[in-house]
Amino acid sequence: MVRGIDHIELIVRNVDETITFFQDLGFKLLTRTKHHGTSVEMQLPGENQPIFEIHQVTGEENPGVNHIAFKVDNAKEAYAQLQGKVKVMREPNYVQSTGRTTVNLRDPDGWRLQLVDANRQAPQT
Question: Does the pLDDT value for residue 125 go beyond 70?
Answer without folding.
Answer: no
